[in-house]
Specification:
2 copies of one chain form a homodimer. In chain A, a hairpin with a 3-residue loop joins β19 and β20 (414-415). The first copy, chain A, has a 6-stranded mixed sheet with strand order 3-2-1-4-6-5, with helices on both faces. A 5-stranded antiparallel sheet of chain A has the order 7-8-11-10-9. Chain A has a 5-stranded antiparallel sheet with strand order 12-15-18-19-20, with no helix packed on it. Chain A is elongated and about 100 Å long. Chain A is built from 14 helices and 21 strands. The first copy, chain A, has 3 domains: 2-205, HUPs (Rossmann fold), CATH 3.40.50; 239-308, no CATH class; 316-433, Phenylalanyl-tRNA Synthetase, Chain B, domain 3 (3-Layer(bba) Sandwich), CATH 3.50.40.10. The longest helix of chain A has 30 residues, at 209-238. Chain A has helices at residues 2-12, 29-40, 57-73, 84-90, 95-114, 125-138, 164-173, 188-205, 209-238, 250-253, 259-267, 275-281, 381-387, 392-396; strands spanning 20-24, 44-51, 76-81, 118-120, 151-152, 155-156, 239-241, 245-249, 289-291, 295-300, 303-308, 316-319, 330-335, 347-351, 359-363, 369-370, 379-380, 399-403, 406-410, 414-415, 428-433. By secondary structure, chain A is an alpha+beta fold. Helix content of chain A is 39%, strand content 21%. Chains A and B meet through α6, α8, α9 and α11 of A and α6, α8, α9 and α11 of B.
């Protein structure tokens, strides 16, 4: 195994050479073999050990054991004790999730503060097989069948190509000591059933199972990379992407027989879960929406618009003449007739004496109307929006500037003629978007 | 199950309604339940039953049983007896492959001759789970994990969303009779192990396993469709496709970090298997090749050329003056000076009296030389090819027309000046590519 490990490091993980490595070590067989291998190959390693205080004396025994091994080898040893149960209760987490959070928070802290280049963990091929089968049993997609990644960013798993048998054999041959790992993983029952009942049968049916599985993983990872390519290429053709929102052109999207696959790929990162609702949305009426925790997807005519959820509180902000107006993106200044312009949507000029301060800055409401500048008569805002082909999101993002509850300005869009400058105006003010 | 089956047919297989359907029926529980369901729903069905003569009386008992059921229901019954073992021996096939060939040959014959629209088989969800696990155990790629297809062309599998338990339950409730199927599939051992030892554990770990699995299959099929999209899109960018060959532009291909995935997708249909050799080929010397049964992939400078294998037999075909020249794409005609042109690569004009018939039409050989028209001196063919930047395939596809073993024409490329028309020529012949 040592030779194979060395070749594997040279060929697939050459960047580890000469780097400062932190090993996550529980004291179980996998991590103790990893310590032994890297120590033997004279890598620059330190050890980080978590004591989660979940198994009393046993936890402390693990800590003592890892510590003494490190002393024997003169390896720098870091240990931290966690009040895992208390943390889990406090944050309403399962013990498993709590332990993971605590562990990785601390590891990241060590990486940063002590200047380590990589964190190494001792996951091996059978962990990957188990993860594959757990996901498969529960139901998954391609992303759940591509195994544990060999590397994500600073975390590297150099034992991933080795089986549990490889590791057990090496530990026997080299008299490596380790402590039985009575892990508290919540999927322990599932994992043990698969480990002891299912995987042995697969290995019996195909004695070369581990190699086949490695090849399967590689094939699936290749396919996954092609899925990513297709997703990206089609995205650029079908989606208009701006800072605040993404607009998916439905008539283009629906030309793809597998458009659902694309929607899934694009929307997955925004943590949507109601996939059936999303697939129905493409043929739903304008105005229908589907929500994730932070985002929403809105059907608007020939488009699906993805945007952050708006909190539709109908708040009114006061707008004063002569003080800084907090939370309102408007600037008010006195000016004279020579400054007067009409061609800028970002500002209006109003007859100051027709206004009653403080003005109000608020979202529009059903029933609002105004007297559009340049027109005779009055018009409902809803009618105006329709004529101007505003989308639902456009409408919701529309603010009004009002005086005594009369619309002075559909902000950034259209002024009201009742407050506009005329020949009798004595005092002009300019109101502009900051 | 009847209700669910009816809904499934209406929703997912509406095209079966009113069509002429042929059912493949062994007499086992799955196919007997399918007969019962479709008969009950008044579909227009006939039954095709194969007797492979592999289990003596038992096979004949199956045939009798299916026949009598069809008689009871007034369903048209087709049966064929096969000498499976003899066929297998004759064609050097396993019994399993032989039975499959015989079966589908006959089914296709029936479809065509009797005007059936579809062939229906009784594969169900557990067959799909087993196929998934068999492929997974042996090692596979995405294509091996997408389950048995619900339809390929004329073959439809309407029970694929039902589990073995669904089918067993329905057969009990409706007193459906069936014969124990002692199939002779060569993967029987594998399949039974998975069926009895592995799948029950997966179902115990997740009571909703069957539904999860259906969803997993759908997800993987979606991913597969995106892989196909990426493959097609990138192919059009990187591959120059003509009738005889495909040229993969390596400098463009190698810009993709996952270029191996694309090579795999593109070359798989040509039955290549030596993938490692193929991946090495991209950085190999010009002239290196990898073969499949019918094709070869040739590294030629910045290109991988895919073409049919050429049988490099160095044959010489005689070319006569006045008879039809079989197997040779040349036409010879007498002509006068007014027809004489130089600007057509597809023909030459030669001084007939300098030629010795029959001419020879053959592939070039190392050591061949000629006296290029329009040049002084002679030139080796190999030098000429190099100067003209011929690829290996271009060279191999080059034919020579010779007279008394002297090159008259590098066919379609360049004439030899020794046989060319000059002021003393009395008889001109035109030799052209047909």
């Amino acid at each position: 195994m040592l030779q194979k490990f060395q070749n594997h490091l040279n060929k697939n993980l050459p960047f580890l050479k000469g780097k400062k490595l932190l090993l996550a070590v529980s004291g179980g067989i996998d991590s103790m073999v990893l310590v032994e291998l890297l120590h033997h190959l004279k890598f620059d390693i330190s050890v980080a050990h978590c004591n989660f205080n979940l198994r009393g004396d046993e936890s402390d025994g693990d800590t003592e054991f890892v510590k003494s091994t490190c002393e024997k080898y003169s390896i720098k040893f870091y240990v931290k004790h966690f009040e895992t149960k208390e943390y889990a209760n406090l944050h309403k987490l399962s013990i498993q999730v709590a332990a993971r959070q605590l562990r990785y928070d601390w590891f990241n802290e060590l990486l940063e503060k002590k200047g380590f280049d990589y964190l190494l963990t001792a996951h091996h091929l059978d962990d990957s097989v188990e993860t594959f089968l757990i996901n498969f049993t529960r139901g998954t997609g391609l992303e759940g069948l591509t195994g544990i990644p060999q590397q994500n960013e600073k975390i590297v798993r150099p034992l991933l190509i080795f089986t549990r048998e490889d590791i057990e054999e090496y530990s026997k041959e080299n008299n490596i000591e380790w402590r039985e790992d009575s892990s508290n993983a919540s999927d322990k029952y599932l994992r043990n059933k698969l480990r002891h009942k299912v995987i042995p049968i697969l290995k019996e049916l195909n004695p070369g199972f581990s190699d086949s599985f490695l090849q399967t993983l590689e094939n699936l990872q290749q396919s996954e990379s092609m899925v990513d390519d297709a997703s990206r290429i089609v995205y650029h053709e079908v989606v208009q992407d701006s800072d605040n929102e993404k607009r998916i052109n439905l008539s283009e999207l629906m030309m793809l027989p597998n458009y659902q696959a694309y929607l899934y790929q694009w929307l997955k990162p925004f943590r949507f879960t109601a996939w059936k609702d999303i697939y129905d949305l493409v043929s739903a009426q304008s105005g229908r929406q589907v929500f994730s925790e932070e985002y929403r997807l809105l059907k608007d005519r020939d488009t699906l618009i993805l945007a952050k959820k708006n909190e539709l509180k109908l708040e009114v902000y006061p707008v004063y003449e002569d003080v800084e107006n907090l939370n309102v993106p408007l600037k008010i200044s006195v000016c004279n007739k020579s400054d007067f312009r009409l061609d800028d949507k970002r500002c209006i000029f109003a007859d100051k004496d027709t206004l009653k301060f403080p003005l109000e800055f608020r979202k529009w409401e059903e029933g609002d109307y105004f007297y559009p500048f340049g027109m005779t008569g009055k018009k409902k805002l809803s009618k105006y929006f329709k004529d101007e082909k505003f989308s639902l999101i456009d409408k919701e993002n529309t603010w009004l500037l009002c005086s005594d509850n009369e619309v002075v300005w559909v902000v950034g869009k259209r002024a009201d003629r009742r407050f506009s400058v005329n020949e009798t105006t004595r005092n002009i003010i300019k109101i502009e978007l900051k």
